[in-house]
Amino acid sequence: MQASISISSSSSFAPVAPRSVRPPALSYSTGQLRFCRLRREAFGFCSFNQSCSIPIHGYRMRNRLPGMKITASVSSNGSPSKGFDYDLVIIGAGVGGHGAALHAVEKGLKTAIIEGDVIGGTCVNRGCVPSKALLAVSGRMRELQDEKHLKALGLRVSESGYDRQAVADHANNLASKIRGNLTNSMKSLGVDILTGVGVFVGKQKVKYGKVGFMDTEITAKNIIIATGSVPFVPNGIEVDGRTVFTSDHALKLEWIPDWLAIVGSGYIGLEFSDVYTALGSEVTFVEALDQLMPGFDPEIGKLAQRILVNPRKIDHHVGVFAKKITPAKDGKPVIIELIDAKTKEPKDTLEVDAALIATGRAPYTKGLGLENVNVVTQRGFVPVSERMEVLDANGNVVPHVYCIGDANGKMMLAHAASAQGISVVEQVCGRDNVLNHLSVPAACFTHPEISFVGLTEPQAREKAEKEGFEISIAKTSFKANTKALAENEGDGLAKLIYKPDTGEILGVHILGLHAADLIHEASNAIAMGMKLQDIKFAVHAHPTLSEVLDELFKSAKVNDDTAVPLPEAVAI
Amino acid sequence: MGLHKKNTNEQFKTDRYWTTNLSPYSVISVIQRKTDGKSWYLVFSATTNSADRAHSRRPRYLSFSVRFFFVMSMPSLLSFNGNSAISFSSAISTSTTRIQCRPILLSTKVRNFSVSAKIREIFMPALSSTMTEGKIVSWIKSEGDRLNKGESVVVVESDKADMDVETFYDGILAAIVVPEGDSAPVGAPIGLLAESEDEIAQAKSQANNNTQSQPRSDSDSDSSPSTPQPAVSAKNVVQQGPRKVVATPYAKKLAKQHKVDIASVTGTGDFGRITPADVEAAAGILPPKKKTIHSIPVVVAETAPLSSKPASLPQIPGSTVVPFTTMQTAVSKNMVASLSVPTFRVGYPMITDALDAFYGKVKPKGVTMTVLLAKAVAMALVQHPFVNASCKNGKSFTYNASVNIAVAVAMDGGLLTPVLQDTDKLDIYLLSQRWKELVGKARAKQLQPHEYNSGTFTLSNLGMFGVDRFDAILPPGQGAIMAVGASKPTVVADGDGFLGVKCKMLVNVTADHRIVYGAELAAFLQTFAKIIENPESLTL
């Protein structure tokens, strides 16, 4: 509520403000914006459109310089440096590009963003956002189907069912709503949205336009590559979009196969297994590594398998590659030929109704004209320094060119891309900034959710061995949390990896109810460099799930208070 | 710490517990819990983890360092002697005594009670009350290793957690019967423990016998179908000869749970695969009033839920299973739903000479017998609105505002009931035109829902096949259905005793007795017969 009020006031205020007093007006609005940047995405649309669209347009018409592109702006997109059309041009309007653009405007840079497809990129249109809509449905379906759980709560539900098309529409509507919010948040700040594909022509020079008609050239002091990624489909797998498909198609939920094979058991595969099993499918995982969920901390992965895989209608084949996948045709099912991941011997053949390829994502960097700035991609990824500066073929920094998000492959998460973008803008503005990737949380939105930040236990042990420090592990269970027990959702574990001598947090892993929302206390602590001995004095409301972390921090033993003598016996 | 402890006790609802130290770092505890007059004993040991030990710290997370041994329900297996030493039957017993092992004293007195046999079997322990089988995560010790009492030997994964299983005997791990990654039911031998090196060979041969005599439940990795096909080359199992067994993930889970040999189940699912229902049928269990997840059907009219079918009949070899088409599914549902309606039948003969003559006259104008009959029914229904009513909820009559006659039409492999709407209001020529359109649409499968589900009365005619009488099933949502037989020349005696040959047709009406009573139905039929016998009124 507060957010919506502050925004509508800033948007109605700006048009009245005379041009000459721009600096105070700008600082006023940036103050607002910095504070609630994310919320503005959600509310910007309505306040802007309903109350102010006409006066703003009028204002813009009279005041805009001729030749300038696009749209109404409330707070101003700064004026460019001498000799350049823009201070900053961002190629790709996904979450990374969007985050960078907003921060750039806030810092007074004249900014343009080039997008050849839809605003919002993968996350908003074909990734995190629509999948959350489906997971919201699957979570509720699970609750309604879990008779034991309902009974324990004293609830009776006679029957549960769903309308596939309505579920699919929900996901689609959410995507278009968020896309609208994102577009409007950029338009309202006056970011120039240039439609088409962006290609490097030379140093600080980009041309854009529809493929084949790229005739508009612009110059920019700095350029950010934020072109993202596409689903990766290994060789031998024939994707027909109907029976063999990627996450792009799966999110449209065109049908619910009785039996779905999911190739890859990372977050994407796991989230889709949650969706499809809740909607009645049976699932078979095909994983090339020797265990499911290879990206997670092993202990969390094991528990996740116990909670998210074993009790469900899911089986799995590990240590195998899907060598060949043939879509269903001529009355035959989808055929998956499995070979041993190590020996390459044929191992088994699966016959299923559909196969979802969730083997990861490949960078989308082809046709960017990187050769014109002497950059060679590595497996498609744009090589970058820790400051996201693009490196050329010789490993030297290409000045004024940055790459953020999936395209650099450092951490393929929407919010990581956005954080990298903000970090780049800070540098462009002359403030050195290095993003600590170990403070970037990640989450998998299964039921219950999984989240983590920092190092896994094996990573931490390896690092400890290399650098010669000690690590300790602390764990708490959701079973001991009042709120979790009230919800009758006691499954779960929170795990802390820390340095016992300094109290530094190395990693936190949570599996349990609302884990994705709980992780931020830990990620913020890591980002701020907070120590366990300090954070354990922070107060948590009771009873809340956050107390799981409270318990976790409190249970850590930082060296100065470890002098508790070992008692003789352990009472149980 | 406090919270965990409290919680642990709450969860187990401990009635009594005993605890004794094995060493400064480990403790063995027995929890007694009484339920339903039975005592359960949960025996487990807690060992501080090595990190804590190294720092001589108080163990912090009990729930993570506790190692469960087993849960016992028979108090006879557990006794406590005076000096608080705990004796109990361990997960390990002698090969000679098998399961009926004697209580063996734990603590230093073990030796005194130890049994004379030299080779002991290590059994799959029950780690929780719900555990039926366990998976060997890893063998901590390998064959030939010397074991000391209290050492962890193997890590077992139950339905709840991974736990270390310890030995209570000194000895040598002679043979591993169930390798890592495989599962064994609770109580099955998973390894053999020899007392001295001399017995190792003996133990090994025993282990071999074990593995041979006891076919392991095939795990996912090496499931070769046990079809008795003589020459299937083992190298290329890529679909030659008999199809391999394909079972869905949940079907496999169920088969394991109910100990059904999946290879012996006949698959009825798509592509002949074994579905969960097949396994349930093979295991002889009825699906517990299955709460299937289903998307909401779009077309099919609302029907009563299918009553769960009795144990499925054995499949006759060589038979093929063809799933219902959508139309057939809808018919099946409607037919089953009709069983919940109490119906009765009334038959009525009528003379059709006049009708046949009339039909001859209007036939050139495109009027069919179907339309004539429908029109006659509609006219009779107008006078007997009870028969045009329906009973939707078992509590009230629903009088339909219009008379819509549905006519059953056989289609390829199915049955449709196109509806002549407002049959009472339209004349026979218009009706004939409508009917022609409807049949065309039905053939092309283009009928709109209102064109097949808005009927208030159904007409079914098998006369063209020479059927003289039959009985129709009342479709859900309607009050009555009329079954029309063939009109056949019959010797008829009239009131004056004169014999004559007349065409007689038998009409049989099935009606919902909740709303239509015998006398009303008879009266309706009488009206209908009058119309048939004086067909000129049909043109009115």
From TrEMBL, chain A:
The active site is at H542. This is dihydrolipoyl dehydrogenase. It holds the Pfam family Pyr_redox_dim. NAD(+) binds at G264, S265, G266, Y267, I268, G269, L270, E271, E287, G360. Its EC number is 1.8.1.4. Signal peptide: none annotated. It comes from Zostera marina. FAD binds at K132, G198, T227, G228, S229, D406, M412, L413, A414, H415. One of its GO terms (biological process) is 2-oxoglutarate metabolic process. It comes from the Eukaryota. The keyword Oxidoreductase applies. Residues 1-21 are annotated as: Disordered. Residues 86-421 form the FAD/NAD(P)-binding domain. Binds 1 FAD per subunit. One of its GO terms (molecular function) is dihydrolipoyl dehydrogenase (NADH) activity. Disulfide bonds join C123-C128. It is found in: Plastid, Chloroplast stroma. Its cofactor is FAD. GO terms for cellular component: chloroplast stroma; mitochondrion; oxoglutarate dehydrogenase complex. It catalyses: N(6)-[(R)-dihydrolipoyl]-L-lysyl-[protein] + NAD(+) = N(6)-[(R)-lipoyl]-L-lysyl-[protein] + NADH + H(+). Homodimer. Part of the plastidial pyruvate dehydrogenase complex (PDC) containing multiple copies of three enzymatic components: pyruvate dehydrogenase (E1), dihydrolipoamide acetyltransferase (E2) and lipoamide dehydrogenase (E3).
From TrEMBL, chain B:
Residues 119-194 form the Lipoyl-binding domain. One of its GO terms (molecular function) is dihydrolipoyllysine-residue acetyltransferase activity. GO terms for biological process: pyruvate decarboxylation to acetyl-CoA. This is Dihydrolipoamide acetyltransferase component of pyruvate dehydrogenase complex. Belongs to the 2-oxoacid dehydrogenase family. Residues 246-283 form the Peripheral subunit-binding (PSBD) domain. It is an enzyme of class 2 (transferase). Residues 211-230 have a biased composition (Low complexity). Its cofactor is (R)-lipoate. CDD domains: lipoyl_domain. It comes from Zostera marina.
